Amino acid sequence: MSSLDHFRLMAPYNAWMNTKVYSAAERLTASELSRDRGAFFGSILGTLNHLVAADLIWFGRLAAHPPFSGRIDLTGLPRPTSVSFVVSDDLSHLRPTRERIDRMIVGFVDGLTDADLAGAFAYSRTDGTQRRKLLSSVLSHIFNHQTHHRGQVTTLLTQAGVDVGVTDLLALLPDID
């Protein structure tokens, strides 16, 4: 499997899992969602906000990168200044933003080439530090970051009595002859 094929698998998996997590989270009350559960971002809602904020930061950086200018539409979306930025304190308002970002990620990845993945990506961190990485490495980080924090949310949901169901990437892999 090429790197491009890998990312074209990860983007829909990411969207599928976010849908499952949000659907599970919707079974809880607003107070249960915002209750501090000792996670790094406190609550289930805090962790989901963190993921949205982080993706908005990364795709803001990507949208400013000349090869991708015009390929990423962030119109009307918040511009977080930190990974703790609260996009919404209400899950029903956060979910449409998450869904839009997930569609954007799938579209972005579908439009990439092997040359794009092998190219350098220069950006500024939120503290102003300049970085330069391979785009493929940055995309690996974005998907790994999502998986890491979704795993935390899945655990918190389970502890709150809500089962997310199957979370394995294997569920999306087709059988071969």
Describe this structure in words.
The longest helix has 25 residues, at 135-159. This protein has helices at residues 3-25, 30-34, 44-63, 91-110, 114-118, 135-159, and strands at residues 120-124, 130-134. A two-stranded antiparallel ribbon has the order 1-2. The chain has a single domain (3-168), classed as dinb family like domain (Four Helix Bundle (Hemerythrin (Met), subunit A)). The chain has six helices and two strands. It is mostly helical and 177 residues long. The mean pLDDT is 96. It is globular. It starts with a helix and ends in an 18-residue tail after the last helix.
Radius of gyration: 16 Å
Order of helices and strands: HHHHHEEH
CATH class category name: Mainly Alpha
Query: What's the tally of helices?
Result: 6
Count of distinct strands: 2
CATH homologous superfamily assignment: dinb family like domain
Largest sheet, order of strands side by side? 1-2
Principal-axes geometry comes out as globular
**Gross CATH architecture:** Up-down Bundle
Percent range for β-strand residues? 5-15%
What structural class do you assign from the helix and strand content? Answer: mainly alpha
Integer count of domains: 1
Largest sheet properties: 2 strands, antiparallel
Portion in helices: 55-70%
Extract low-pLDDT stretches.
none
Q: What is the averaged pLDDT score?
A: 96
